[in-house]
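pasting for ref
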Amino acid sequence: MPCPPRADAGPSGDRPVTAAIPAHAPRLTPAPPPIPRDPAARDPGWPGRWPRQDHLELAALATAPGCARAHVCAVLWEWKLDAIGEESALIVSEIVTNAVLSTQAQRSPDPIRLWMLGDGPNVLFFIWDATTPAPALTPAAPSDEHGRGLVLVDALCTRWGYYRPDGHPGGKVVWALMQALLQPMQHSAASPY
C-alpha cells in the first residue's frame, strides 16, 4: 500500500512544493565568536594557536554559574586535567557570577561567554560580558554575605586580570590562568599571559 500524499505535496500529489530536510542531513554548527581582542596584546592571533579550545555561551540567569561550573569540569576531565577541575570550576563560577550580576544590574539582554584554552598543563579562561565596570578585589567583612569571589579567584589561580576590548563587542573580559603542575610557571609560547 503506498503512503498517503504529504500535506505539502504539489497538485499532482507526487512532488513536494518545498524541499524537506532529511533527518540524516548534516547540521551546520556556527563557529563560536572569537575572543574579544585585548588592546594590549602584541599578537592578536595568539589565542588561535592554543591546541585545545572550547566555548560556552550562557544567558545572564541565576543558573549560569552552575552551568559554567559543570562545563569546566567536563571539559577538563576530557582534557585529562581533572586534577585542577574543582578549583578551575570554582574560579569560573565566581567570575561568571559577577558577570551575571553586572549584566542583570544593567538590564542587558546580552549573553555571557566563556572560552577555555589549553596547552598541556595550562588552562586559560576568558569570561566576557557586555558591561564595563571593572572587577574589584575588595576585602569582605566576616558578616558580609557577598564579596569573596575575587578573593577566591586571586588565591586559587596562577594569574588573573581583565581588559576592555577594542570596538565591537565592547564590555569587558576577565581572564584567569590555571596550571595543573606545581612547577615554576611555564608560559605557552603562544600566550602573552
